[in-house]
Amino acid sequence: MFKKKYLLLLGLVAMTGIFTGCGKEKMEIKDYHTDILGDNVYIFTPEDEASAVQETLDHIYSMQEAAQFDDNRYALYFMPGEYNVSANVGFYTELAGLGALPTDTKISAVNTYARWLSNPQGLHNATCNFWRSIENIEMQSDTVWAVSQATGMRRVQVDGNLTLHDEYGWASGGFLADSKVVGLVDSGTQQQWLSRNNSYSSWTGQNWNIVMLGDEPGGVPVETWPEASYTAVEETPIVREKPFLVYDEKDGFGVYVPEWKEGSVSFGWDDEGSSEGKVISLDDFYVAKENVDTAQTINEALDDGKNILFTPGVYELDEALKVQKSGTVVMGIGLATLRSAAGNECVVSDGADDLILAGLLFDAGTEESEALVHLGAVEGAVEDAKPSLLADVYFRVGGIASDGPCKTKTCIVVDLDNVVGDNLWVWRADHGDNVGWDMNTCENGIIINGSGVKMYALMVEHFNGYQTMWNGNDGTCIMYQSEVPYDVPGRGQWINPDGKRFGYASFKVAEDVSSFSATGLGIYLYNRDNTIPMYCAMEVPDVEGVHVHNAITAYLNGFPGLKCVINEAGDSLLSAGQTAKVLDYENGQWR
């Protein structure tokens, strides 16, 4: 079936406006590429010469290891089989298998190190190892995955141990889901982490906020707060795993879409196979390509009822993509990036539910937009809205090379009910190009108005006002990470809306919310540019039914610090290096 560097793909239609034809049309991959998915997608087969595959992997990594704000994007796919190669995963790179199961695709070694950046002590520094992913493969040795935010390791099997740091240098991640680690997981110096629906022999390492959600009980630490930083939640309330690209000899390429599952524990696949979802043919997708497609061509495809698959690249959009059909899948591979080019939103849904938005990075542009993503409400009662999924969805305001500072009023507004967020990083840049308090401006990172919204691994940082505003009822947030802004120029620039207190809380739950639950929160204050007083890290209404479990604040440097953790609860932080915890808070009572 497989030929060296040449692979006949049967049953494919390339929905790019360039290639069309019947489902029996044959396409040919040459030099690891296929016209169907474009030049930034590499597809390897077991019959390829291992040394040539290794050379290709090494070359891409040499370009991407330190390319923090680069515009190059890559997806590296492996047909089912076994590969005697070692892959390092750099910026804007996705590495994945094309089998139905992770164990269909075996790679000798896959790692991400942090050797390109050192901390002041000269240790390997992974705090800027963003924007990369590994999915749907078996790694046949110990694995180092030294990463921070905007990274995902999903649906993998690690045949050895998994280390989440690089020789105990700094790290600020991260996310692991739907995976099996034969050995132990060592989180080491990781400040925070969400492990969701995984199996491992044991877990070692802790810092501030390590959350295990729906993990197989045997490996989960029994220690918990306040003595240890582990928070265990027995079951994941509801989740749908992220869709992924697959290849079948009979049907060609497709997108595997897992079903929703409730009250789940451990990973959802096994070596015997499982019927956890369905494959949507690539015929039902419009395959978008960088420098070919525009907002107009993509909106035409959406009007025709197509799902959208963004191949790796940066897409400058001069108008919003309008999603109006329920059940639409909009997903990217290789960290595909949608950038606002004219002060417009990038994606807007209108009256649609049962949506999937996955594997995408959204960039603000130099003209201020209202938001980058707006999920509109559907008519009817809350229970009428079918659940929708946001998986590995990232937002960025500034840092990139551009003609001026990038800005938006907010990054994402969720008016839609029953949305599930699974690994979001919402980031106003604290470093990079055109960065400063009055330059890359954005008031709020995320605003949630819908009811029944659940967020797992919500990370929101450095915005000018509240980082997170939660206005909907029946919400759930499990694992939250946030640093408030580094760059406030003075006290008068950062006043609470009540006009009486310095500083905005990171997490604001609206006063009229009557039901809300948050578990495993870490909120950090780092006064890089000034002494920023901050009253409290989290504001919630004092009512029965609004409950917070295991929240920590950390003061990283500067003075004068933080008065409270939640409302009036929790110890003050008066000097750098201090932390304060609240184990449970509800209706003005805490411990």
Descriptive account of the structure:
The protein is mainly beta and 591 residues long. The protein folds into two domains: 235 residues, no CATH class; 308 residues, Single-stranded right-handed beta-helix, Pectin lyase-like (Pectate Lyase C-like, 3 Solenoid). Helix content is 4%, strand content 42%. The protein contains two helices and 48 strands. The strands form seven sheets. Strands 26, 27, 28, 30, 31, 33, 35, 37, 39, 41, 43, 45, 47 and 48 form a 14-stranded mixed beta sheet that branches. Helix 1 links the parallel strand 4 and strand 5. The longest helix has 15 residues. The N terminus is likely disordered.
Summarize the structure.
Helix content is 4%, strand content 42%. Mean pLDDT is 92; it is low at 1-27.
Question: Which helices and strands occur, and which strands form pairs?
Answer:
Blueprint: E1 6-9, E2 27-30, E3 33-34, E4 41-44, H1 50-64, E5 74-78, E6 81-88, E7 93-97, E8 105-111, E9 132-135, E10 138-139, E11 143-144, E12 151-154, E13 157-158, E14 162-163, E15 175-177, E16 180-186, E17 192-196, E18 199-204, E19 209-213, E20 230-233, E21 236-240, E22 244-248, E23 252-258, E24 260-264, E25 277-281, E26 285-288, H2 295-303, E27 307-310, E28 314-317, E29 321-323, E30 329-332, E31 337-340, E32 347-349, E33 356-363, E34 373-375, E35 388-397, E36 410-414, E37 419-428, E38 444-448, E39 454-461, E40 468-470, E41 475-483, E42 507-509, E43 516-526, E44 534-539, E45 546-557, E46 562-566, E47 579-586, E48 589-590
Parallel strand pairs: 4-5, 5-7, 6-8, 7-9, 8-10, 9-12, 10-13, 11-14, 12-15, 13-16, 14-16, 15-17, 16-18, 17-19, 19-20, 26-27, 27-30, 28-31, 29-32, 30-33, 31-33, 32-34, 33-35, 34-36, 35-37, 36-38, 37-39, 38-40, 39-41, 40-42, 41-43, 42-44, 43-45, 44-46
Antiparallel strand pairs: 1-2, 2-3, 21-24, 22-23, 23-25, 45-47, 47-48
